Amino acid sequence: MTLVKAYAAQKADKALEPYQLTRREPGADDVEIKILYCGVCHSDIHTARNEWGGTMYPVVPGHEVVGKVSRVGANVSRFKVGDTVGVGCFVDSCGHCNNCKDHQEQYCENGHSQTYNSFEQDKKTITYGGYSTHIVVTQGFVLNISDKLPLEKVAPLLCAGITTYSPLKYWGVKKGDKLAVVGLGGLGHMAVKIASSMGAEVTMLSRSPGKAKDAEELGAHHFALTTDKEKMKELANTFDFIIDTVSAEHDYNEYLALLGTNGVMVLLGVPPTPSDVQAFHLIMGRRSLVGSLVGGIKETQEMLDYCAEHNITSDVEMIRMDQINEAYERTLKGDVHYRFVIDMASID
Ligand code: NAP
Ligand code: ZN
Questions:
Q1: Element (H, E) at 204
Q2: How far apart are the C-alpha atoms of 214 and 220, rounded to whole Å?
Q3: Cys-Cys link to 269, which of 77, 136, 246, 340 (CB 3.0-4.6 A)?
Q4: For residues 327 and 341, what is the distance between their CA atoms, to the nearest angstrom?
C-alpha cells in the first residue's frame, strides 16, 4: 500500500479538499503512474455533487490522466519505467463478455470499472481517480501517449477526445456531411476539431454569443445562437448529424427538428433530469436519437494516434490543484476555454 496525495469531495455540498489516498502496491500486471496532468470533465462535477445519484464519498474525481510510468509489475511487457502513458474513463472490465471481446469494454456486460466512484473487478474495492499524484492500473487499460504533442493538451483527449471521436467513427461521419455540435465546452470543442478534421461541414450551436469567434478558430464553418429562434427555424431539416454535449436540462425536440431525413442526433451530455421527446420529431423524416459512451481501449489508442497524426489537441487552461473549486464554478457558468487541466506538480 502506498499513501498518495489527492483531492476529494467529502459531501455533495462541500468543496473539494486535500485527502490522503491509499493505492495498492503494483501487482504482476499493474502499471503505477506518476500523474503529470489531469483534465477536469463536467462528469467530475456531476459526480462530486451527486447530481446523478450514487456517489460514494469521499470521491476523488479525474479521468483524463497523463503521466509517466513509475513502477511496473513482473508480467508487464508493454510499458517500462519512464514511458509516457494515459488513463481514461475506465480502468478494468470483465474481459470475457461479448462486448469486451469486441473491444467495447465501455459496454462490458458484467460492469466495467470506471476510473472513480466505481468498483474494481473484485466488485468491492472502490476506485479513485486522477486528482492525485499516482494511480495503479492493470496494463491492458493503460494507453501509449506520443511525446510529440504537449502532454497537458493531450490529457483531455482521454475523455473529451474519445467521447467525441467514437460516435463520429461509428456513424461514419465523412467529407461533406452537415454536422452540428451543441454546447461549446470540453466535449464540444473536441467534437468541432475532430469532425472538421474528418471533412464534415460543422455548425456550432451555442447559447453563448461570446464563443462565435472561438468556434470558427476551432474549425467550425458556421455559428448559430440557440436563443435566436428565427435562425433555429431557418436551420430546420438541414443536418445529417447533431452531437449534443450539453450538461444541463434542455429541450431535445428543438434540436431534433434541425435534422434532415435519416438524420442522427447523438446524446453525449448527461443532464441529471429526464427529458420529454415528441415522437413526431422522430417519425417525420425517420430520424434517430441515440447515445454513446466514451470508447473502448483499442479505439482510444486509435484516437490518440489519429490526433498525434493530425496535430489535434485540446485548448486548455492550466490550474493548480487548489484552484479546482473555482474551476468547477467557472465550468458551470460556461466560462471554460475549453478544458481546465490540473498541473499535478502543484498538489500540496
Ligand atoms: P462543459 O465543458 O461544461 O460543456 C458543456 C457546454 O454545454 C457548456 O459549455 C455550454 O455551452 C453548454 N451548456 C451548459 N449548460 C447549459 C444550459 N443550461 N443550457 C444550454 N447549454 C448549456 O462539459 P463537458 O465536460 O463538455 O461535458 C458535457 C456533458 O457530457 C456532461 O453532462 C458530461 O457529464 C457528459 N459526458 C458524457 C460522456 C459520454 O461518454 N457520453 C463523457 C464525458 C462527459 P455553450 O455556452 O456553447 O452553450
Ligand atoms: Zn469525462
A1: strand 201-206
A2: 9
A3: 246
A4: 9
* Residue 145: CA count within 13 A, CB half-sphere: 30
In this structure, are 204 and 256 located in the same domain?
yes
Read off the CATH number of the domain in which 39 is found: 3.90.180.10
Distance of CA 196 to the CA centre of its chain: 18
Query: What are the pLDDT digits (tens) for 282-313?
Result: 999 999 999 999 999 999 999 999 999 999 99
What's the CA gap between 220 and 185, in Å, rounded? 14
Per-residue confidence band for 126, with pLDDT thresholds at 50, 70 and 90 = very high
Distance in angstroms (rounded) separating the CA atoms of residues 265 and 257: 10
Q: Which of 325, 295, 239 is nearest to 17 (CA)?
A: 325
Range of the domain at 35: 2-158+315-347
Number of domains in the chain: 2
Nearest CA to ligand 1 atom 11: 183
% residues pLDDT > 90 (the chain)? 99
Query: Does 145 lie in the same domain as 198?
Result: no
Q: Which three cell numbers stand for residue 8?
A: 476529494
Q: Which of 44, 49, 202, 246 to mutate to test the pocket of ligand 1 (most atoms within 8 A of CB)?
A: 246
What CATH number did the domain enclosing 165 receive?
3.40.50.720
275 is a domain residue: yes
Q: Whose CA is nearest to atom 30 of ligand 1?
A: 269
